[in-house]
Give the backbone structure.
Amino acid sequence: MASLADIRARIAAQENKSGNNGSTKQSDNSIYPHWNMDEGTTASIRFLPDANGNNTFFWVERQIIKLPFNGVKGDPNVKQIQVQVPCVEMYNDGSSCPILAEVRPWYKDESLKEMANKYWKKRSYIFQGFVRQNPIGDDATPANPIRKFIISPQIFTIIKSSLMDPEMEELPTDFMRGLDFNVKKTTKGGYADYSTSSWARKESALTQLEQDAIAAHGLFDLTDFLPKKPGEAELRIMKEMFEASVDGKPYDNERWGNYFRPYGLEAPAGTTAVQPTATTETRAPATAPVAESAPFDTDEPESTSTPIVVPQAPSSDKAQDILAMIRARQAKTA
């Protein structure tokens, strides 16, 4: 198990590197939906270590790219859908993401930055632990009380920065001298805000019941909850879907449904379905919030101060203009 010093050294190394550069689906309630808390309430969470001894941290980072489409080909009832695909950069093995390779140069052009942000990878962080104080009345503790937590960048920043505080003397996941983390939900500008979340001031030991649960169920290897790494065929489909999304085309279930498809959409008829990357589908207008409780493979509702909307794919004319600009610049620099 990594020590607090190990974690601090790893975080410092990552931040230094960044500065130098300049720049398993679950059907039960094992995921704790902290985003369903009422405003003004607090959930106390005790994070636990990762069972994977190769992981310095007690979390794993997930990177997802969201591809919006103007409906589904052949289904006039679906107006807007979104497909999520894994960014292969999350696997930290030197793999290159074909989508980000296209998107990165867009940031050099002011007129393309908004489009670049739409297709840039979205980060979230997977933890495990116990819910010690639960303000969600209808949330039942599962048979295995070790829950999974999908943590947004806003909360993760608080967790990470506190670990670098020299006044924190013990690893917060220590069974005897660890700390609880208090997730506090408020609102800012009409949206959920978790910026007042914090670590507890006093250390506490795991209860006997909690220790017994760890002994009975074991800890999770958090990498098991990352999307499966795409192979060559999946990468080709991801690139194809990305190009169709930018072009403003509808999602083609017959062509792509065996690889990635929106949550709730059936696999193409007469095929053996590959487990898709689950996403959220809505038949509401493009400005309607995504309110559906998503499976584990999807992002949790955004815990930021920005609205949650179904992205509006560009019109065909606008998409063609953007693509023409991109291709003209690429040809000029080739």
The beta strands are 42-47, 60-69, 80-86, 122-133, 147-151, 181-184, 186-188, 191-193, 198-199, 281-282. The first strand starts at residue 42 and ends at 47. Residues 4-333 form a domain with the Replication Fork Single-Stranded DNA Binding Protein fold (CATH 3.90.198.10).
